[in-house]
Design a protein that fits this description.
This protein has about 375 residues and is α/β, with parallel strands linked by helices. It has helices at about 130-140, 155-165, 185-200, 215-230, 235-240, 260-270, 275-290, 300-305, 325-335, 360-370, and strands at about 15, 20, 30, 30-40, 50-55, 90-95, 150-155, 175, 310-315, 340-345.
Amino acid sequence: MTQPQSVGVVTPRTQRFTEPLLLKSGGRLEEYELVFETYGELNADRSNAVLVCHALSGSHHVAGYYADAPDNVGWWDNLVGPGKPLDTRKFFVIGVNNLGGCYGSTGPTSIDPATGTSYGANFPFVTVEDWVASQARLADVLGIQQFAAVVGGSLGGMQALSWTLQYPNRVANAAVIAAAPKLSAENIAFNEVARQAILTDPDYHDGDYTAHGVVPERGLRLARMVGHITYLSDDAMAEKFGRSLRHGKQVFSYEAEFEIESYLRYQGKKFAGYFDANTYLLTTKALDYFDPAFEYGGNLPAALSRAQADFLVVSFSTDWRFPPERSHEIVQALLHNRRSVSYAEIDSAAGHDSFLLNDAIYHGVLSAYFDRIKVTAHV
């Protein structure tokens, strides 16, 4: 058996679009850019393309590493590459940074051509549906009429689901992993707490913090800390940190005494050093707004009746942010429409973050599903 390998050194690409994009919010982008990466080779009839959609803090950098930054490994590198579940000897894999992002695609930190200054808080609201529409335009540029698969975890899984509804004839397979058909009230509540941490930071300046030469670091730190708690399970935190004290004793202070406190502060500080606050606000709102059944009176089977793809739906036992019951909703709605659905519920102690990890059973499920997808060989 061939050992899995890295795709190696990768280079981001930028595609500029000058045709205006009308947004679901009623906003409009006159022009924009999307940053993306590709892995593997597109075959002659362009039938082997797979789109990977990223989650809240993800990016186009799905696999491989950069020549000048070998430690900057793609966020789903364990999934994409020769001999891996998304085998680049078979598939041409594409990762795209979503509109409104902060990794190169047009977003709040980009220059608004109408003003000559960064968009900041004036960047329009974007939705999952807008991301999919812009990804479809990129597929047009690349000459891809139909994806062999659209794949994503968490918010990426919502994009994969939306692809099957917006462009049902352009998706042969959809892998919807650790996702939900819409957020619960509890999830919206967590997102609102995170947003308020940013919006009430004195350095936020109504979203124009760049003009003031500052970053709402405190708000971003708190937002990430809140979010990070929801990505982990109680078992995972207990196993990794327990109630361990950094100094071996109680020192009766508000400093980080417990190891879990230290970990959350570290994650928050690191995140605030590279992620944009306005992007965080936009992305969590996109999560909140996603609800394909909204225009169908809450009837999910009716909403999913447009889908034509075959589906793989995956959930994780300790994911309390998007628990297996939410995946069951998707599966049942698809079965109601007589769609072909494979479902796997993975026993994992890692919580929502399980979809990012190299779990043998999980990857075995993905490999088995992707192996059965038929594409034309390279020529």
